[in-house]
Every structure is written in C-alpha cells, then in structure tokens.
Write a sequence for this structure.
C-alpha cells in the first residue's frame, strides 16, 4: 500500500510539472506584449532608425572628405618631345612608358549656399515624422489589441449564454419527451422542442467558432501561435472626463498622425530649398599629397592645396524639381486638413 501511494504521488507530481500553468492576462500585459512583438511596430521602429541614419548622413556632409586613389599605367611608347639643338633635331623623353601614381586628397566644403543646412533640416524633419509615425503605430496597435481583447470577452459571454440556452432547451426537450411517452402531449410538441434544441446547439457551435476566431486574431496581434490558450481578465474602461470641445482640441494637438504629416511637409519644404541652394556658388578647399612615378621629373611627390568653385548658372530641371516637391508638400497639407476634420468628427 505504501509503495502504491508513493507511485501515485510521483505520477501526480509529474502531471503537475508537465501541465502548463495558464494565468489570466490583463489588458496592460497584452499591450506590453504587442509593443514588444508586433511586426507593424517593429517595422515602424526600423523606419525610425533608417531616418536617424539619414540624418547622420546629412550631417556628415559638413565633415572633411578623404579620398585615396592610385593606379598603374603602361604606355605603348615612351613619352618624348622633339626640339632643335644647334640646328640638329633631338628627342628627349619626358616620362616613363610605365609608371604608378597615388594620391590622398582631403576636401572640405566652405560655402554651399545653405544646401547642406537644408539637407540636414529635411532629415531632421523626416526623423521627427518617423518618430511620430511610430507613436501612431503603437497607439493604433494598442487600440486593435483593446478591441480584440473586448471581442474575446464578449465572445466568451456569448458562448456561455448559448450553452446555457442549450442546457435549458435540452431539459425542456427531455420533459416533453417524458410527457409524450405518457401520452400527455402530441408528437408535434416533441418535434418542436427537438427543433428548438437543434437550433440552439447550432448557435452554440457558431458562438464557439466565433470565440476561436476572436482568440486567434488576438494572438496574431501579439505575434503568438494562433492556437495558444487565451484567458483574459475582465475590464471596465474608464469614461473620458471633460467637455467635447476640450477633448477635440486635445486630440487635434496631440494626435501623432497630424504631427507626422506636419513634419513631412516641413521636410519637403527643406528639400525644395536645398535644391534651390544648389544653384548658388559651391566653394570647397582641397588639399593633400600626390605622387607620380617619373624618373625624368625632379619632384615625383608633391603637396598641394587649392580652392575650387562650381556655379551652375543655368540648370533647366532645377525649378521643375523644386516645384514638384512643393506640390507634394501641398498634397500632404491637404491630407492633414482632411485628417483634422475626420478627427474632429
């Protein structure tokens, strides 16, 4: 008997250890999992990081640029010059038929007409737009999770109600069956009770299927296996406090979707200004070391420095590029105004 009790205790212990514990999940826990695992939020975070790297790239235009180059050249003949010495034609080599060269040049922009500043401004606005878009994605996913959370709870209630209805009609059908067996009711009454019970069972199956779908969608938002068990804590949402005008004004000031569109407009405006700046003089300082292999040259390696300027006096497509970007900014501005009206609605 003692041995059997020990064996039974061991089996119970193993059963408990291998049975997964299921705890009721709160809405706050669901939000946390969604923010950490949802693919849309991960995508928004990656887009924000990309915009941040673009800002670093734009800021890097102000830093010196170092270029190192080299090569080797083989000519079909030795470079020579022809001259006249004491009435006699003479030829002198000026270079080698094969030679190598190398250089290291540093370039530093001095004046770009504001092009670099506008590029940085556009990148900063794009980063803020991406950050606002990420915040909007988080809020949108949280709203979807909350809706799915409530939908699961409602579906569970619907299943309980449907099953209670089935149990009630099953008891009624049994009573009618007993009465029919005693000849106290007609067969039509029994058939009617059986049809009502069948319909109730069908509705119970439908409610159960809807619950499974609601749970699967909830798991999908949290990036979990669709068949994972879902046990939720009942929630009682707080009622918003304040007048409609105040709440509407708060929404128009804080909704990240509006901030995103505003920053996108700012970014496009900076891009348009940057294109115009490209038509102004572009000054840069170049300096470095150059080496050209040539035994006929006194100094094969030399240090150099120069100030260069480029000025596009006319470039036909610049104005059209700028106008296209301005038109894009105007299109987004109209989208923002439409969104403002829909938020107010």
């Amino acid at each position: 008997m003692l041995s059997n009790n020990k064996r039974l205790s061991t089996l119970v212990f193993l059963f408990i250890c291998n049975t997964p514990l299921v705890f009721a999940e709160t809405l706050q826990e669901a939000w946390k999992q969604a923010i950490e695992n949802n693919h849309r939020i991960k995508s928004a975070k990656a887009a924000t990081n990309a915009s941040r790297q673009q800002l670093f790239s734009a800021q890097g235009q102000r830093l010196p640029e170092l270029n190192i180059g080299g090569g080797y050249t083989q000519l079909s003949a030795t470079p020579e010059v022809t001259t006249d010495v004491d009435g006699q034609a003479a030829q002198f080599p000026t270079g080698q038929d094969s030679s190598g060269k190398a250089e290291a040049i540093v370039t530093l922009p001095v004046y770009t007409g504001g092009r670099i500043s506008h590029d940085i401004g556009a990148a900063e606005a794009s980063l803020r737009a991406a950050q606002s878009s990420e915040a909007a994605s988080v809020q949108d996913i949280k709203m979807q999770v909350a809706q799915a959370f409530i939908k699961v709870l409602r579906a569970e209630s619907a299943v309980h109600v449907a099953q209670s209805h089935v149990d009630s009609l099953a008891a009624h059908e049994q009573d009618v069956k007993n009465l029919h067996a005693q000849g106290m009711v007609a067969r039509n009454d029994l058939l009617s009770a059986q049809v009502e019970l069948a319909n109730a069972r069908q509705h119970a199956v439908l409610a159960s299927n809807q619950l499974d779908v609601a749970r699967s969608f909830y798991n999908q938002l949290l990036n979990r296996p669709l068949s994972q068990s879902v046990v939720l804590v009942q929630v009682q949402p707080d009622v918003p406090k304040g007048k409609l005008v105040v709440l509407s004004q708060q929404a128009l000031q804080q909704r990240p979707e509006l901030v995103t569109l505003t920053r996108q407009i700012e970014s496009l405006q900076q891009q348009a200004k940057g294109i115009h700046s490209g038509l102004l003089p572009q000054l840069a300082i170049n300096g470095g070391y150059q080496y050209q292999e040539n035994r006929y040259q006194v100094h094969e390696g030399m240090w150099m420095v120069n100030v260069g300027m480029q000025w596009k006096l006319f470039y036909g497509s610049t104005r059209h590029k700028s106008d296209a970007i301005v038109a894009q900014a105007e299109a987004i501005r109209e989208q923002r105004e439409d969104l403002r009206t829909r938020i107010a609605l």
About this structure: The first helix runs from residue 2 to 18. The mean pLDDT is 89. The chain is about 60% helix and 15% strand.
